Amino acid sequence: SPFSSVTGTNHVPSSAELDQLKDLLAEPQHELKRLRSEISRLQSLLDALLKEKDEVETYIEAHRALMSPIRQIPSETLGEIFMHCLPTDIYPFAIRDLKEAPLLMTTICRHWRRVAIDTPGLWSSLHIHLPPQLSEEVASQRTTGVSLWLERSATLPISISF
């Protein structure tokens, strides 16, 4: 650049120098516009390719999930596995909590929910907590939950703790 000695300084260009600068910058400004346009085109292409890649990955993962070994376990075996998730001898009573077995197993997927509900042994013990200040609505909900629990235990004997 003929102006390299004064770029980055406080030099005040003359009218003639201003005309030279305008002429000097015409081509680089045109090149900058072309580069920005090309970057925009490539960014659009990249965005489209990334979207397509995500769709293909989602498709692959959805189908790989169908091949998961856990899906091949027979329902009876899965029910037995669930039984080993129940509370131990230290505290042998299940509680009505979605973060604990057996209710936890009903939240994973439809298949696990069906297996858990159809495995009476999961529902053969229950701890019922009744705090002294229990509203009628909460008491009704607990009654409904306990009734459902008892139904799921089918004909098995049930152990209850209060």
Question: What is the beta-strand fraction?
Answer: under 5%
The helicity comes to 40-55%
Q: Give the termini distance in whole angstroms.
A: 90 Å
Element-level helix/strand string: HHHEHE
The count of strands amounts to 2
* Overall mean confidence score, pLDDT: 93
Shape: elongated
Write down the oligomeric state.
single chain
SS-based class = mainly alpha
Give unreliable regions as ranges: none
CA-atom Rg in angstroms: 35 Å
The largest sheet is:
2 strands, parallel
Strand order of the largest sheet: 1-2
Number of helices: 4
Keywords: Coiled coil
Coiled coil: 18-52
Organism: Rhodocollybia butyracea
Protein name: F-box domain-containing protein
Strands, helices and their partners?
Blueprint: H1 15-66, H2 75-83, H3 110-117, E1 125-127, H4 136-152, E2 159-161
Parallel strand pairs: 1-2
Task: Compose a concise summary of this entry.
It comes from Rhodocollybia butyracea. This is F-box domain-containing protein. By secondary structure, the protein is mainly alpha-helical.
Overview of this protein structure:
This is F-box domain-containing protein. By secondary structure, the protein is mainly α. Helices cover 53% and strands 4% of the residues. The chain is built from four helices and two strands, in the order H-H-H-E-H-E. The protein has helices at residues 15-66, 75-83, 110-117, 136-152, and strands at 125-127, 159-161. It has a two-stranded parallel sheet with strand order 1-2. It is elongated and about 105 Å long. The termini are far apart. The mean pLDDT is 93.
